[in-house]
Hints:
This protein has helices spanning about 65-75, 90-105; strands at about 1-5, 5-10, 15-25, 30-35, 40-45, 50-55, 80-90. By secondary structure, it is of the alpha+beta class. The longest helix has 14 residues, at about 90-105. It is globular. The mean pLDDT is about 90.
Amino acid sequence: MWTYKGKEFNEPGDYYGFVYIITNTASGRKYIGKKLFWSLKRKTVNKKKKKVIVESDWKKYWSSSEELKKDIKELGEDNFTREIIHLCKSKGTANYLEAKEQFSRTVLEDSKEWYNGIINVRVNRSHLKL
């Protein structure tokens, strides 16, 4: 279950993605990441390739961090919380806010507090929809 502002979150509405924090409730260790609600897929319709927008696996998503996924497998999902901290109108905004949160919380400087091992971002000002 994802939460946003203390309430269960189930419907993305017109948002494109979100920035989140996953917390290990046993150790307090955290991970900041982003996930998109939608993705483009190529589908063949009447022998023509078309791009269609489909919902991602965001409801079941638990991060790209192998270390975090290993802990989730060992400790169980019940020992982790998933909180959305920003809902984003564009992919660029999600990229920007993820990196902003990671830098402001100095996630690379304390490996005992954070699962994050890399900050990877490329954002153009024109992509932001804040």
